[in-house]
């Protein structure tokens, strides 16, 4: 709407109406605390999505995209897609109040994939000579990408590339839907049954009641009353939200800070930290 205001009233924006309405709806939402590199900021970070792209994208895809962009002069037919991708990235970066997830950058993946297609063009770019170099690099990148996908399975949502330290270090860079969206509650139910844990003190980052997965739990709102504790990565590192599908939203971002210095018994999918506090003293 702001962009339309700069144009003559008789000139419509040459883009599909649903695209513009969706963009307006997303950019109009406020009240999302941004988290980047260990810091929270109510107004967002202009470099948030650049950092997100660099730490959440597999290295072979980053390398392929870079080689493609350095691979000779861009053709006129390549410019619209590149301009659309970079322009959208700029819009979301400047609208820093919605720094909540790399999913807002998903449009860059097909744009970058189109750019990577340049690597297959014979006789162009950095891989033009010697003749064996191009196929060798393509096979290497494809194999590398396949290895990344296989080793990351099935925890793709919490994936962070190895250059950033991997999923275990993800909370140092990003939180929210980049790492934890309540996706590992089914794994928690399986873990509870496998280890015969009667009740878990649970603080899960979710709007769903965990009992629908068969989890036997008590909502953790302070000091645990039992031995076994499970805390979502977001809540553990200070990104507050509704806990266990209830109306409880912790006002203190350090409510679960005491668990940050404990060694977890297990980390499920990179998003759920499980702690064994030892036998509970008899009353």
Q: How would you describe the overall organization of this protein?
A:
With 283 residues, this protein is of the alpha/beta class. It is 34% helix and 9% strand. The chain contains 9 helices and 7 strands. The chain has helices at residues 2-5, 17-28, 48-56, 59-69, 79-94, 108-116, 133-152, 185-194, 233-236, and strands at 34-36, 39-41, 200-203, 217-219, 228-232, 266-268, 272-276. A 5-stranded mixed β-sheet has the order 4-3-5-7-6. A two-stranded antiparallel sheet has the order 1-2. α4 (59-69) runs antiparallel to α7 and α5 runs antiparallel to α6. The mean pLDDT is 88.
Keywords:
five-stranded mixed β-sheet; about 35% helix; 9 helices; about 10% strand; two-stranded antiparallel ribbon; alpha/beta
Outline of the structure:
With 283 residues, this protein is α/β, with parallel strands linked by helices. It has nine helices and seven strands; from the N terminus they run H-H-E-E-H-H-H-H-H-H-E-E-E-H-E-E. The strands form two sheets. It has a five-stranded mixed beta sheet with strand order 4-3-5-7-6.
């Amino acid at each position: 709407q702001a962009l339309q205001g700069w144009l003559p009233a008789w000139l419509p924006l040459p883009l599909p109406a649903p695209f513009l309405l969706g963009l307006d709806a997303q950019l109009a939402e406020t009240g999302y605390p941004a988290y980047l590199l260990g810091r929270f900021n109510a107004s967002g970070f202009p470099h948030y999505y650049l950092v997100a792209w660099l730490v959440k994208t597999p290295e072979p895809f980053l390398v392929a995209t870079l080689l493609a962009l350095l691979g000779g002069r861009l053709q006129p037919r390549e410019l619209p897609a590149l301009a659309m991708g970079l322009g959208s990235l700029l819009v979301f970066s400047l609208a820093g109040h919605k720094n909540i997830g790399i999913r807002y950058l998903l449009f860059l993946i097909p744009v970058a994939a189109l750019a990577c297609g340049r690597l297959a063009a014979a006789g162009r770019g950095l891989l033009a000579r010697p003749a064996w170099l191009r196929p060798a690099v393509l096979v290497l990148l494809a194999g590398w990408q396949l290895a990344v996908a296989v080793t990351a399975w099935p925890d793709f949502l919490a994936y962070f590339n190895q250059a950033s330290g991997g999923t275990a270090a993800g909370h140092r860079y990003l939180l929210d839907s980049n790492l934890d969206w309540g996706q590992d509650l089914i794994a928690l139910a399986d873990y509870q049954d496998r280890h015969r844990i009667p009740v878990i003190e649970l603080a899960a980052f979710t709007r769903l009641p965990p009992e629908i997965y068969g989890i036997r739990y008590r909502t953790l709102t302070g000091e645990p009353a039992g031995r076994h504790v499970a805390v979502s990565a977001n809540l553990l590192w200070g990104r507050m939200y509704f806990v266990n599908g209830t109306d409880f939203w912790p006002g203190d971002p350090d409510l679960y800070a005491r668990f940050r210095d404990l060694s977890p018994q297990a980390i499920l999918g990179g998003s759920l930290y499980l702690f064994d506090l030892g036998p509970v003293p008899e009353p």
